[in-house]
């Protein structure tokens, strides 16, 4: 007998990911706007002696992936079920 699907895998939902200056944030909402899950993971900012700032893009990726994994229950990821909207400011 197949396993019972997670309740979230039976409903359409929107997943938002924000890669900001100091952290990655994720939110999962149903189509009515109800927040189902949220999370945030910070990444370091290096400040060299010359007064600039630096970040390692690998930290962005790790933070984003950790928030996606936390926000989306595994059974909710169904082949062919995803759509994406990309924006950039």
Task: Describe the SSE topology.
Elements: E1 13-19, E2 23-30, E3 35-42, H1 57-71
Antiparallel strand pairs: 1-2, 2-3
Task: Pick out its properties.
elongated, alpha+beta, 89 residues
Low-confidence stretches: none
Secondary-structure element sequence? EEEH
- Shape assignment: elongated
Radius of gyration: 16 Å
Helix share, percent? 10-25%
SS-based class: alpha+beta
The main β sheet shows up as: 3 strands, antiparallel
Lateral arrangement of strands in the main beta sheet: 1-2-3
What does this structure look like?
The chain is α+β, with helices and mostly antiparallel strands and 89 residues long. It has a domain at 10-44. It contains 1 helix and 3 strands. It has one helix spanning 57-71; strands at residues 13-19, 23-30, 35-42. The chain has a 3-stranded antiparallel sheet with strand order 1-2-3, with helices on one face. A hairpin with a 4-residue loop joins strand 2 and strand 3 (35-42). The longest helix is centred in the last third of the chain and has 15 residues, at 57-71. The chain starts with 12 loop residues before the first strand and ends in an 18-residue tail after the last helix. The mean pLDDT is 77.
What's the short version?
The protein has one helix spanning 57-71; strands at 13-19, 23-30, 35-42. With 89 residues, the protein is α+β, with helices and mostly antiparallel strands.
